Each structure stands twice: as C-alpha cells, then as structure tokens.
Prior knowledge:
This protein is an alpha/beta fold. The protein has helices at 8-12, 19-29, 32-39, 46-57, 111-120, 135-148, 167-179, 198-202, 238-247, 260-268, 290-302, 319-327, 337-368, 374-379; strands at 59-60, 81-83, 88-90, 94-96, 124-127, 156-161, 184-188, 252-257, 273-276, 309-313, 332-335, 383-384. Strands 4-11-10-9-8-7-6-5 form an eight-stranded parallel beta sheet. It has a two-stranded antiparallel sheet with strand order 1-12. A two-stranded antiparallel ribbon has the order 2-3. Strand 9 (273-276), helix 11 and strand 10 form a beta-alpha-beta unit. Bound molecules: flavin mononucleotide (FMN).
Amino acid sequence: MHKASENSSSERTKALLNIEDYHKKAKEKLEKMTYDFYSTGSDDQLTLIDNQAAFRRIKLRPKMLIDVSSHTKQDSTNCQTQILNSTMTIGFPCIIAPTAFHRLVDNENGELATVRAAVAHSTIMCVSTNSSTSMERVAEEHRRQIKENYPHSTSKLWYQLYVLKDRQYTQKLIKRAEKNGYSAILLTVDTSVPGNRECDVHNNFTLPDGIRAENLIDKDNNYVSKSYHIPFDPSLSWKDLDWIRSITSLPLIIKGIIHPDDARQAVRHGVQGVVVSNHGGRQLDTCLSTIDALPDVIKAVSNENRQIDVFVDGGVRRGTDILKAIALGAKAVLIGRPVLWGLAVDGTQGVYNILEILKKEFRLAMMLCGCQTIDDIRKNDLVVTNVAYNPSKL
Ligand SMILES: Cc1cc2nc3c(=O)[nH]c(=O)nc-3n(C[C@H](O)[C@H](O)[C@H](O)COP(=O)(O)O)c2cc1C
C-alpha cells in the first residue's frame, strides 16, 4: 500500500481528498441497487442524516500555545490508542465497523481487501456474521499480511455476532471465532428485526449469484438465501447475554446501545465494552443520533463500580468527528460506510486511503486543539455542544 501520491493506482484517486470525495466516486461506480443498499437508512432516513448533522452541531474550543511538534516526527506515536484494559493497541482511535457483503463492492477480494488495509493501519476489523468471505479465510489473510508485510502491526480481528434462532449454531460461530484467533466478540443487539429499508424494497434488493453469507454455511447448515435477511431472533434478551458470557472467555462488546440504562445493565452483565450505535440509521428511524446519545452513556458507565470501554459509530466522516467523540468520552470510533466507499473506489488501496485521510485529519485536529496525546483530548474540555448555528446559511 502506498501513500496517495506514490503509485499509479493512486494517480486515479489523487483528486479524492476526503471521505465525501470517495463517497461521490463510489456512487458513480456502483450499480444503483448496490449503492442504495449501502447508503440508505430506514423509513424517512432522519437518523441517518442526523448522525452526521449532530457531529456538525458540536463546536470545538481549542487550546493554544502548547508545543505540538512531536506530531511532526517521523515515528510519531501520539495517535496510538490503548483499548480493553490496554490489551490492544490501535494506530489511531478508529476501527472498521462490521458491514455486510464486501464482495458486493469489490467482487474479487471483498473482505480480504479490507483486512489488508486494517493490518497496514494497525487497526481492528470487525468481521460481520454477514461477511461474504468466511471468517476462517479473513483470519488466514490477516495472519499472512502480518507475517509477510507488516510484522509490527498491532491489528486484531473482532467477530461480529448476530444471535440466530438456532442457539447451537450461534455457539458454533463463537467457537469458530475463538479457534481462528479472533480477539473479541462484538454482539450486535439492535436488530431484533430488520429495519424498514424502503429503498431495498423499491429496488427488490437481492444478492447476486456467488455472493452469500459465507459464515452461515457449513456441511450441516445452510441459512443462505437470496434475501440478505438472516434469521434474527426477536426473543434475544439479557439472559442470552449471560449465556454468551458463560460460553466464551473472549472479551464481549455489545453494539447498538443508545439508552444509558442499557449501558448500566451491560456493565452489570460483565461485558468489556459497548458501542453506542444505531446501526448507521438502518434500524429505528428517529432514534437519537449516536454522538448525542454518547454523553449520557458515558455518565451511566462511569458511575458503575467496574469501568468498561465505550465506543461510538454513525456519521463519522472527518478527523474532527473522531476528536469530538474522544473528547466526549469514547475510547474510539467505528466507521462503516467510509470503508465501503474506499473499497468500491480502489479496493485495498481505497480502504487504506480512507484510513490515512481520517488519521491525517485527526492528527491535524489534535495539533490545532493543542493536544500532544490522546489523554489531552479527554482532559482539555474542548467541546461545546449547546451553541446553535445553521450551517446551511454559511
Ligand atoms: C451496508 C451496511 C451493512 C451493515 N452490516 C452490518 C452488520 O452486518 N453487522 C453489524 O453489526 N452492523 C452492520 N452495519 C452497521 C455498521 O456496523 C455501523 O454501525 C454503521 O455503518 C455506522 O455508521 P456509518 O456507516 O455512518 O459509519 C451495517 C451498515 C451498513 C451501512
């Protein structure tokens, strides 16, 4: 992988400076049905829109006259972030969220292309239950990349679990993740039923031949159909969380928390982390935006006896968004659609560039806010959330 100006593949993408540039380019390249599947949300898409708008409503209050020159050193490690009780280190506080069927946008390599970029950036890739490449194959590529190309990478894989009606099969998925070296289970809890995605209904969305949820196929089971809906279990409850906790010793992180009461419960049920998420606006429309939900969740967990990590996703498109999330108490953000835009535009190189852009923007934001370290972002009281302005008038 190369920096933007260094290779011919990047020549094609040199005008792409930010995530929105990649989004526009991906839209040009993808078939309408695929683009709509990735880009849209549920009902009137108000939550989808508000996830991004809410970041824009938050203002930064930078500090000056602080020496931030250490950021400019070649081996600068100022953006490195420790998570899960310092058991994992990531290159900067940005993780690849689980998203379904990467082979829809990069037919040849799909999730393998994504994992190569994750290794290069020392970050975590969350591999979806709805991955179009099996979790075994992704893990094998992850190991190979580290061994052959990036021996110093601290990248890890997390397995994103949907609890299926068939609990035995669900258990098998967890055991396969353990066996293949996944470092955590990311349990998604906001999909008791699929959201109402009207664009997919209009387009009669179906998976093309050859693309399917590869994790859900083994010699005894085949859950795969042309529909992308897997058999979610609407009976999922806290007691299933206890069951999952009892059958694996991997760290357990739950994704899809919005309400502070749920965050408190999660701590009491022994999880190691929560992701404040509304599934990128694809589930309950008019749900609170995630960055607006974050402060109450942080408050709730900080009042508990045991400390856990809080992550947030939804609408992160700029390095300043990452800085705002950290300033409000998140350990790191997850990004969903930006990775898909990168993948659609230029495969591994595209995902690499997306991470590189966000990392550069994040570092710049740190410097302009007078932050030498990630801890400074937390300590410096940098965000103001109650100042109104109307960006459409600017
Ligand atoms: C096309 C698409 C597919 C997704 N698939 C999954 C999935 O399989 N499992 C899951 O937990 N979340 C899934 N998500 C939600 C993402 O993990 C994440 O919460 C969301 O994309 C974050 O918002 P952003 O796209 O604005 O960054 C999906 C999101 C999109 C857009």
